[in-house]
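EI: anyone free to look at a 501-residue chain?
SC: sure, send it
EI:
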Amino acid sequence: MTEENQTLAQRKEKAESLADLGVNLYSNGFSPANSAVELHPKGESLAPQEKEEGETLYSLAGRVMAMRKFGKAAFCTVADKTGQIQIYIKKDIVGEEIFETFKKWDIGDIVGIEGTLFKTKVGELSIQAREIVMISKSLRPLPDKWHGLSDVETRYRQRYVDLIVTPESRETFKKRVEIIRLVREYLNSQDYMEVETPMMQPIPGGATAKPFQTYHNALGMDLYLRIAPELYLKRLLVGGFERVFEINRNFRNEGLSTRHNPEFTMLEFYQAYATYDDLIELTESMISSICEKVNGTMQINYQGTEVDLSPPWQKMTMDEALIQVAGLDAEILADDEKVLALVKEKGIELEEQAGAGKAKTELFELLVEEKLINPTFITAYPTEVSPLARRNEENPEVTDRFELFITGRELANGFSELNDPIDQLQRFEKQIEDRGEDDEIHPELDHDYVRALEYGMPSAAGEGIGIDRLVMLLTDAPSIRDVILFPHLKPEIQQQQADKE
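SC: here you go
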């Protein structure tokens, strides 16, 4: 028998003995009136060994995180969602029967306490229990308090334990909730309307990625978990909703990494009668203000690197970045043949039909991206790699598009929207032609979206921001799995077998 199974067996035996003594191991009905965080201020004025006047009764429920048992008394530390507080259980107050059963309780048990406040002789605020009840018996021990969950994969796989024993993990997810709330507040203040669009779509569109595919029996048709909500949100612009946003899941049937999870959260928003310059200004204002509200400053440290989110943020075209950051010759970038030759020299493989625009983008990803630490907007993306963005009126080879990079990672992608149905149809057709017989991605022309544009879509700009990556940045999290409550992993048995091989 393994040590884990032996401990589990011992705890089950203890639980059975408590049940035999008449203890309800999973009781219902205890309703705490107080929390740990509200009780601490009440005891600030108390001196060591002093009781609160009037002996007001307080009730609290939480998990036992530590326990010290003596002959006729015991101390335990109980944690609720707000914090921790010490409980003092004395035999002659709670009664011999309850005290004797309490001595069989374990760290990890969830309990309810009612009692009065006092300070111990060392000055620690405590509740002197008048009543203590078992709410839920813990059959598995918590990790050692000094080491916690040291195995990273176990933290992801057993997030429920990670949240119990790792305060930093709890704080990360509290911050995540706060960040999303602040995003909503900001966009609401700018007169945006939050909407919901289909998660299952008949045509995977809005981005180039491999979708998850399913089948709907009643409709007799294939459906795809969405890779992006973009084309539905822009249909709403056609319908007259001039400012819309959605925060929801996207799904891409691709690899896993510290930056990628097959199911991830995106913010997408669209504004009629706006340009990508308007969204650059909005993005800078929104993210910097959220950072200050969450962290109290716009200067943060991400994985040992100082990052300044104070506006204004740097802005460069892709060509300027290739020249200034990568050190490429402007003469080479002006010659398509020389660009393609340079890509080949760098060992970058391109599709046969790829042009200079795709080549420049690949060079940018290889030579520039990871060097963009402080916030930087990269603009003037090649039309070839931007099938949904509006062409620049002065140079149709590029689009009115930007991507935002912070700490070497793309955080946002936005552009002035293409609203010409004829141009859009031609780009869709070219995109399908370029993909060819792709085994991974089967692009399909979205005729209904083109039809929507034929009714007339106002000039507009739209943007997507990766919520998970934003949370990573603002919480100093090294991996996307640290900011997703339940990230996708191989089944535990498969992973154990892989580790043995």
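EI: The chain has a mean pLDDT of 93.
SC: 👍
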